[in-house]
Amino acid sequence: MVKGELLIGGEARYGAGEAFKAFDPTLGTEIAPDFAGANLDDVRIACGLAAAAFDEYRATSLEDRAAFLEAIAENLERDADELLARAGVETGLPPARLKGELGRTTGQLRLFARVVREGAYLDVRIDHALPERTPPRSDIRLIHQPLGPVVVFGASNFPLAFSAAGGDTASALAAGCPVIVKAHPAHPGTSEIAGRAVMRAVAERGLPAGVFALLFDKGIEIGAALTADPRVAAVGFTGSRRGGEALMAIAAKRPRPIPVYAEMSSVNPVLLLPGALAERGEAIGKAFAGALSLGSGQFCTNPGLILAIGEADDFVAGARAAISEIAPTTMLTPGIHAAYRAGVSALNDHARVSCVVQGAEGEGLQGQVHLFTATSADLRADPRLVEEVFGASGLLVRCQDADDMAALLEDLEGQLTASVHAAPSDYPLARTLMPRLEKLAGRILFNGFGTGVEVCDAMVHGGPYPATGDGRSTSVGALAIARFLRPVSYQDVPAELLPTALREDNPEGVARRIDGVQTAVIR
Ligand SMILES: NC(=O)C1=CN([C@@H]2O[C@H](COP(=O)(O)OP(=O)(O)OC[C@H]3O[C@@H](n4cnc5c(N)ncnc54)[C@H](OP(=O)(O)O)[C@@H]3O)[C@@H](O)[C@H]2O)C=CC1
Ligand SMILES: O=C(O)CCC(=O)C(=O)O
User: Fold this and answer.
1) Which reactions does this protein catalyse (predicted)?
2) Ligand 1 pocket mutation, candidates 220, 226, 260, 465, criterion most atoms within 8 A of CB
3) ipTM above 0.90, yes or no
């Protein structure tokens, strides 16, 4: 039930801050009820409770923490009808997409339950003492410990999978960190329903109430205060480059700076190599149109920059035919719609850019699909052409030859994904490009597009700056837990005082590296 209440300390209550309403982007109307924003006292209370809950929560057994994550997934499934209906109204996203996103959300909670139960993420290492050695070696044991309370900013474009009970919340809770969510004002009701599902799971599993909180605010004050609070140990964020950089600056200026895992801006270059273009240029163009327009292009993995060797006429023909038939779809918020329109207008007005094709015109907050084109010389003349236009807008850049394409790649900023469309005859060229792609992006994919990130063990959803603030990590997949951990060594610590996974009897049966030899999970 959506009441517009903050969730703090296991209780739901109205905030004393400024109230706001959710917005229906399809109808262009506000939606009841009022969401009472948090104030700075609420920030202090939520952070205090999270800090107080930390020791008890991090001491939970692996089994208890895994069961907690599963309980959240079950509660979300129990509330699915209400969750999906509210998310549909608040975001304008179609039911099938939201249903899939809910499956992804519960799936990632269950993935982390498995990761926690297994215990391999603790990366336990034991180097027994070598008293006979000269000089003698102490007994040294390593385990990863959680960082502390984590602030999670819900993302506007994934109201379930990157929001209140989304990936950052799941990975931080899995690591043993309490979570305080700053809900995105684009879908506050969805956030409240999901937040209540988490809060219920906290109570059902007998965990301290400070393990989870959810705060609303239509402005930036509460998010900034949460990031600055000395009890907060890390931040997870998905959104604009401006927002992510502002939070990174706040975190860096604290007396004790903390990591901000910000996923920000990416144009996800797509390389069209000559063999692939000759073999199936038109089909690639059609597939590209689908990836570009998916979810109104509101994906950080959206293919915004296409680099082709030569004229790529078949690709253009395929893309043109498909895009001209694509109906416009509602974008998430008036702000995102306005930013998209401004970005598209700037490209339309740019002297060096021409529009290849646009989709059907929309009304209200609907976004119209666009494909523009320019040459590599144009891009060099105005490097701002590669800046992200968030939405279904792509820029096709025609390169003179492979060297020209490689030189353009050198100039690009860090990316979440890089896609290569290649036939076997292109592999020698692709081989020469791979070292650059490995330095450029978090994920390299062949003959596909980066939208629709798989949640699995091997996924990296990250990338060098400014794709993310810290390219050494991922926000999706099992490895995301590592962002909220740090290694601690125990030297000659009595067995009674060691974490259980470091004791000789290893009661939870976690995999360990003992005197240089990796052991398997014992369960
Ligand atoms: N690359 C990507 O994955 C994505 C990029 N975007 C980009 O972001 C634009 C705006 O979309 P939106 O999703 O609202 O992203 P924003 O970055 O504007 O906002 C994301 C969240 O961060 C908060 N926030 C933003 N700036 C600050 C700040 N200086 N201090 C504290 N908190 C802050 C916002 O609060 P509040 O809203 O309350 O102000 C919101 O909760 C889009 O047009 C698009 O360009 C958006 C989504 C994903
Ligand atoms: O493409 C996806 O599945 C995820 C994209 C994403 O992380 C985002 O758009 O913020």
Assistant:
1) 2,5-dioxopentanoate + NAD(+) + H2O = 2-oxoglutarate + NADH + 2 H(+); 2,5-dioxopentanoate + NADP(+) + H2O = 2-oxoglutarate + NADPH + 2 H(+)
2) 220
3) yes
Distance between Cα 240 and ligand 2 center (Å): 13
Confirm or reject: Cβ of 299 under 6 Å from ligand 2: yes
Distance from CA of residue 161 to its chain's centroid?
A: 9
Ligand nearest to the CA of 264: 1
Residues in the chain: 523
DSSP letters spanning 12-34: EE--SS-EEEEEETTTTEEEEEE
Please confirm, yes or no, whether 300 is among the known catalytic residues.
Answer: yes
Task: Report how far Cα 231 is from the mean position of its chain's Cα atoms.
Answer: 23
> Rounded to whole angstroms, how far apart are CA atoms 186 and 152?
15
Summarised one tens digit per residue, pLDDT across range 227-259 is: 999 999 999 999 999 999 999 999 999 999 999
* pTM of the entire predicted model: 0.97
Q: Is 408 in the pocket of ligand 2 (CB under 6 A)?
A: no
Q: Which residues fall within 8 angstroms of residue 470, CB to CB, at 6 or more apart?
A: 259, 260, 261, 262, 462, 483
Q: In b/e form, how buried is each residue of 442-476, taking b as 16+ CB within 10 angstroms?
A: bbbbeeebbbebebeeebbbbbbbbbbbebebbbb
Does the Cβ of 240 fall within 6 Å of ligand 1?
yes
**457 in Cβ contact with 307 (< 8 Å):** no
pLDDT in tens, 476-488: 999 999 999 999 9
- Dist. CA 153–CA 469, nearest whole Å: 14
pLDDT tens for each residue of 429-461: 999 999 999 999 999 999 999 998 999 999 999
